[in-house]
């Protein structure tokens, strides 16, 4: 039955501000909360509410952490009595273990179990929903930001990170031409991600290069470091000097868009590329340290809910070891060749200018570079670094809580 309190009715002037709150126990374990004029009540599982009791015995306020004794937690816990206070906007629960909890209506609403509310939370706050794009749409989706504004204004920092999360690419303009830009930018977000190749790295033609990227040859589409379990998330490429030769353009493709095409038009290829585990590797040495990295993962990786988490693609960094059943080999090659050809056909080429900082999602976009004629008269000098999504999303959430919004 509904338990109603009429506190606001007796305090006349509060009546216009307070909405009547009704609470009731349903199915002996759940709690329903209905605010006046709302059509649907909010339903909360009792076990979850007890687990999330906010009292001092159950919750450590300053670290915002649960400290409930979980060794003895009763999953069969039941609410016994309920009370709603319309002035303080709180719901009090007495439990079958004699404990008492109190929850504010706002706290409850923010944790609504309604499907749409959960979707909104995940889309707006957990990780912004991605929007996939074809190469022809690049100019429409590519957002440009001023480097100085990103560095000095939190709202612009938030917009940049939001664009990066949604589209997987964003360009900063008019950065100074010193080698410290990528570090300052990474530190504006959080901190730089170190890899085998160091923290900042310079992409220029190098004699005796240890990495394929350090040649002036065309660099086919790829994702960086597919041979890491914990891959660097976002590439920051600061153009300091750009070659005058016709080449040296960046190529970008939205790997999630290519996966969408496969999923729609070639479901068997899609399924195979999601399932067959590929060995990716990198062998070499940097600054005198030898390394041999291997990570095994499909080309298209999905999470438990079937959403893309990453794509892996690299011709040079695919291992000659291929630990799959014989019968899988040829079909996999066919499917992978289709993926790569679709990606090449959809790639968008453009040339960054000195002062541009190209930022893109390394575990979503494929990137490459057209060949160029490197010489003393025709140099090309790009400074790169990586950031991780954990650090970016965290910064984005903190900014959204402080500034609100951030939709793109
Ligand atoms: Zn408690």
TrEMBL record:
Keywords: Carnitine biosynthesis, Dioxygenase, Iron, Metal-binding, Oxidoreductase
Protein's recorded name: Gamma-butyrobetaine dioxygenase
Domain (Gamma-butyrobetaine hydroxylase-like N-terminal): residue spans on this chain: 37-108
Single GO MF annotation: metal ion binding
Ranges for domain TauD/TfdA-like: 135-386
One CC-aspect GO term: mitochondrion
Organism expressing this protein natively: Drosophila suzukii
GO biological process assignments: carnitine biosynthetic process
Database matches in Gene3D superfamilies: 3.30.2020.30, Clavaminate synthase-like
Family (UniProt): Belongs to the gamma-BBH/TMLD family.
């Amino acid at each position: 039955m509904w338990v109603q309190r009429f506190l606001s009715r007796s305090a006349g002037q509060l009546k216009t501000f307070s909405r009547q709150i009704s609470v009731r126990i349903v199915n002996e374990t759940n709690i329903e909360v209905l605010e006046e004029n709302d059509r649907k009540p909010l339903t909360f599982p009792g076990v979850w509410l007890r687990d999330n009791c906010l009292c001092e015995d159950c919750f450590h306020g300053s670290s915002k952490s649960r400290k409930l004794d979980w060794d003895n937690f009763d999953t069969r816990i039941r609410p016994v009595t309920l009370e709603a206070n319309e002035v303080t906007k709180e719901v009090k629960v007495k439990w079958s273990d004699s404990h008492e909890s109190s929850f504010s209506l706002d706290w409850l609403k923010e944790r609504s179990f309604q499907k749409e509310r959960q979707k909104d939370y995940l889309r707006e706050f957990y990780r912004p929903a991605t929007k996939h794009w074809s190469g022809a749409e690049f100019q429409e989706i590519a957002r440009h930001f001023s480097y100085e504004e990103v560095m000095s204004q939190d709202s612009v920092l938030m917009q940049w990170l939001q664009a990066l999360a949604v589209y997987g690419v964003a360009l900063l303009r008019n950065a100074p031409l010193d080698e410290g830009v990528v570090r300052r930018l990474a530190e504006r977000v959080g901190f730089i991600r170190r890899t085998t190749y160091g923290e900042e790295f310079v992409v220029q033609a190098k004699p005796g290069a240890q990495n394929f990227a350090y040649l002036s040859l065309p660099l086919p589409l790829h994702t960086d470091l597919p041979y890491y379990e914990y891959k660097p998330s976002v590439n920051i490429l600061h153009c300091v000097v750009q070659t005058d030769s016709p080449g040296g353009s960046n190529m970008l493709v939205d790997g999630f868009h290519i996966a969408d095409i496969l999923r729609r038009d070639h479901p068997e290829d899609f399924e195979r590329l999601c399932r067959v585990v590929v060995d990716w590797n990198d062998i070499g040495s940097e600054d005198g340290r030898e390394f041999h990295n291997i990570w095994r993962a499909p080309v298209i990786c999905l999470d438990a809910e079937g959403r893309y988490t990453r794509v892996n693609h690299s011709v040079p960094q695919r291992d000659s070891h291929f630990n799959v059943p014989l019968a899988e080999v040829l079909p996999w090659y066919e499917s992978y060749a289709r993926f790569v050809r679709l990606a090449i056909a959809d790639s968008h080429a453009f040339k960054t200018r000195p002062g541009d900082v190209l930022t893109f999602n390394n575990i979503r976009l494929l990137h490459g570079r057209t060949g160029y004629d490197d010489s003393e008269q025709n140099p090309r000098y790009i400074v790169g670094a990586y950031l991780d999504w954990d650090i970016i999303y965290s910064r984005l959430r903190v900014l959204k809580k402080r500034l609100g919004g951030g939709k793109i």
